[in-house]
């Protein structure tokens, strides 16, 4: 009897601890959200969802269990990003390197991705919220059933513009650039394009998903699972645009909304630092000019002093 009472007491204590923790957690999440909504939200977030198998391993479960839990988190992340006001979300679901995994795991992942596409397709929120779904990657390497679902969801959402969900499957950044270069070279050899027309804009247009409908520059790359690498993900779209990076320790199935909010806070801090740096540079130039000109070029100085005032305000 005493033993039984002790068990009930322990269970009650455990429940109370969890309850208090979740109240604090929700309050922290609420405050963090208010804080980040007061500043600029990144337009385009790219996510490397890593750590599904390690998470499952910790629990003594199978790899497919880890991937299934990870995919549930993916669904929540899409919702959070939409609610916060992100406009483009690109998810790294399957890299070209992932083909080196066992046949069983690769098949399992393709089935899981297919299942999620069908779910997103029949979810009324996809259509109410006007979410456009696109796939980037080498589709020739995908099984027919997955390509069918991709075509179905892309067709059904092609005119939606409120939110863009880009899913990278059989994707490699360098391979994307190679296919764009081949495509452009083909256009040049048939006379559709001239060499002089090849510039940044044209190359961007020939990257995945298809000529003319490229994925825009990335503002923030986020990776879970503890590794601090960007693994050949969107090199063209991320490198030229000085995007922010956020690496965090939780495995993908453990990823919470506060992790997403924290990553956005890092993006906002980088933006503020960049602005400050710019103001500082302008101030430096103005000071040099003031000393060097000593009354000459008053017109230029007037303009620069205006910039100086704006820069430090
Ligand atoms: C990386 O963890 C995860 C993947 C290769 C698969 C990610 C795919 C999903 C979560 C499904 C996506 C769903 C939609 C809706 C597109 P890992 O296998 O490398 O794990 P590890 O780092 O612990 O080995
Ligand atoms: Mg991994």
From TrEMBL:
UniProt keyword list: Magnesium, Metal-binding, Transferase
Its EC number(s): 2.5.1.89
Binding of Mg(2+), residues: 50, 242
Coiled-coil annotated residue ranges, if any: none
Protein's name in the database: Tritrans,polycis-undecaprenyl-diphosphate synthase (geranylgeranyl-diphosphate specific)
Keyword Iron: no
Residues at the active site: 50, 98 (proton acceptor)
Main EC class the enzyme belongs to: transferase
Binding site for substrate: 51-54, 63, 67, 95-97, 99, 101, 223, 229-231
UniProt family annotation: Belongs to the UPP synthase family.
């Amino acid at each position: 009897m005493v033993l039984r009472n002790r068990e009930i007491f322990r269970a009650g204590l455990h429940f109370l601890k969890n309850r208090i923790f979740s109240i604090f957690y929700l309050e922290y999440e609420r405050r963090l959200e208010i804080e980040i909504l007061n500043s600029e939200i990144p337009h385009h977030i790219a996510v490397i969802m890593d750590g599904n198998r390690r998470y499952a391993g910790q629990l003594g479960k199978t790899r497919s269990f880890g991937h299934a839990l990870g995919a549930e988190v993916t669904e929540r992340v899409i919702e959070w990003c939409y609610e916060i006001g992100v406009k483009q979300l690109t998810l790294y679901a399957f890299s070209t390197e992932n083909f080196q995994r066992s046949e069983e795991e690769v098949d399992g992942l393709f089935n899981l991705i297919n299942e999620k596409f069908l779910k997103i397709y029949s979810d009324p929120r996809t259509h109410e919220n006007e979410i456009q779904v696109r796939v980037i990657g080498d589709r020739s390497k995908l099984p027919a059933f997955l390509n069918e679902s991709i075509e179905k969801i892309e067709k059904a959402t092609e005119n939606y513009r409120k939110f863009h969900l880009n899913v990278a499957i059989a994707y490699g950044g360098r391979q994307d650039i190679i296919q764009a270069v081949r495509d452009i070279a083909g256009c040049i050899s048939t006379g559709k394009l001239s060499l002089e027309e090849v510039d940044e804009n044209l190359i961007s247009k020939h990257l995945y998903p298809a000529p003319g409908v490229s994925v825009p520059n990335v503002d923030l790359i986020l990776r879970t699972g503890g590794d601090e690498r960007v693994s050949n993900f969107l090199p063209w779209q991320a490198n030229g645009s000085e995007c922010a990076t956020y690496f965090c320790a939780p495995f993908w199935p453990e990823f919470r909304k506060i992790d997403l909010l924290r990553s956005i806070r890092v993006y906002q801090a980088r933006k503020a630092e960049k602005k400050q740096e710019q103001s500082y540079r302008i101030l430096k130039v103005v000071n040099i000019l003031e000393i060097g000109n000593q009354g000459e070029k008053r017109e230029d100085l007037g303009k620069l002093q205006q910039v100086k005032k704006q820069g430090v305000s």
